[in-house]
Design brief:
The protein has 387 residues and is of the alpha/beta class. It folds into two domains: 172 residues, Rossmann fold (3-Layer(aba) Sandwich); 199 residues, Dehydroquinate synthase-like, alpha domain. The chain is 49% helix and 12% strand. It is built from 15 helices and nine strands. Strands 1-9-6-4-2-3 form a six-stranded parallel beta sheet, sandwiched between helices. A hairpin with a 4-residue loop joins strand 7 and strand 8. The longest helix has 23 residues. The mean pLDDT is 95.
């Protein structure tokens, strides 16, 4: 079979102390006034002052916008408010520095400067017609991969469901990934962000949209992160672990951007929106029954996944090797203190399953990539198996 492959990526600058390049990169984009979007923890770590100094050294004016919120995903009004700030200061470049949510807000705020509607009007695939002003993304976690993707996730305040804007117009111009910025991550953030990154590699790997390029990158990302996530979690000062997790995370982001997630993310959105569960745990509490339900369609790939995770598959049947991937994944989740069931999150109300299934089934942008066609009743089974 001959497959057409499109592979898109921002300009990527990766390595220790690469944060020092932010001023020159902003200057290349024509920056004279920059809106620097970040969060309070990043500010406390001293990174904001450093970036501001690097920008000012290039004669670039800087306004800092500190983001705070009370839900794991930013609500739709937040990027709209940031866009107003950028418009009023006449920003010509937006820099997002922080976790995935801060980067998503930065991407969307940029797009809103050149597109007239509200965030809700752009939910879905390729609905943003015009690119925004240039953006630079600097992740401080490993991570969501948001620095290299065209996606931005927000809480739809009307439905209390997480939804995505997925448009090429949101793709950042430059991603600067400096593993040293992740050393300050608390243990729980290391686990939540790290497992999110791992899922961004494994889920597209077993999706319909996988291709030979993303498969190679995904397997390497899986290998890196299953080896180094544990050490990064155990000792945040382990620079080898931080370096390799940052590398695995950005590779997973490239896989996500070019092959996309599917069943796990589709089923996680209703739960995360309703219960305001952080993104990583909203995925881990359902991933095992999700993968068990689709494994019959991609046993060979699940077997390769097990091998990439460091499991010995010699002498095993394809089915045995495939099932080993779920055993290894469950073991990793437990060692990271992450939930493997809904009950672990104190979610026990099964009366909500019917509505979750309807909401998840509506996420056809994601479910269209699933290797098994799923009805609403199929999704109900998966949710019930998640308790």
């Amino acid at each position: 079979m001959f497959q057409n492959i499109n592979f898109t990526t921002p300009s990527i600058i990766f390595g220790m102390d690469t944060l020092n390049q932010v001023g020159k990169q902003a200057k290349k984009l024509g920056a004279s006034r920059v809106l620097l979007l970040t969060g309070p923890n990043v500010q406390k770590a001293g990174y904001v002052e450093k970036v501001a100094a690097l920008l000012k050294a290039e004669s670039i004016e800087v306004e800092v916008n500190i983001q705070g919120r009370n839900t794991p995903e930013p609500a739709t009004h937040i990027p709209e408010a940031v866009a107003e700030v950028a418009k009023n200061m006449k920003a010509d470049v937006i820099i997002g520095m922080g976790g995935g949510s801060v980067l998503d807000v930065a991407k969307m705020a940029s797009a809103l400067l050149t597109n007239p509607l509200k965030v809700r009007d752009y939910f879905g695939r390729e609905k943003v017609p015009n690119r925004g002003i240039p953006t630079i993304m600097i992740p401080t976690t490993s991570g969501t991969g948001a620095e290299v993707t065209k996606h931005a996730i927000f809480l739809d305040e009307e439905t209390q469901v997480k939804k995505a804007v997925a448009s090429s117009a949101l793709l950042p111009n430059v991603a600067i990934i400096d593993p040293l910025l992740t050393v300050s991550c608390p243990q729980v953030v290391t686990a939540n962000a790290g497992i999110d990154a791992l899922i961004h590699a494994v889920e597209p790997f077993v999706s319909k949209n996988a291709n030979p390029v993303t498969d190679c990158i995904a397997l390497k990302a899986i290998s890196l992160m299953t080896k180094w996530l544990g050490p990064a979690f155990a000792d945040g000062d382990d620079l080898d672990a931080r370096y390799n997790m940052a590398l695995g995370s950005v590779m997973a982001g490239l896989v996500l951007n070019n092959s996309g997630t599917s069943i796990v993310h589709a089923l996680a959105y209703p739960i995360g929106g309703e219960y305001h569960v952080p993104h990583g745990p909203s995925l881990t509490c359902i991933i095992l029954p999700c993968f068990d339900y689709i494994m019959l369609a991609r046993q060979e790939k699940f077997a390769l996944m097990a091998e990439a995770m460091g499991e010995r598959i010699e002498g095993l049947t394809t089915r045995e090797a495939a099932e080993l991937s779920l055993i290894a994944l469950e073991d990793l989740l437990k060692k990271l203190n992450l939930p493997t069931t809904l009950t672990h999150l104190n979610i026990t109300d099964r009366s909500r399953v019917d509505q979750w299934a309807i909401d998840a089934h509506a996420e056809q942008r994601l479910l269209s990539r699933a290797v098994r066609k799923l009805s609403v009743d199929d999704i109900k089974i998966i949710y019930n198996n998640s308790f």
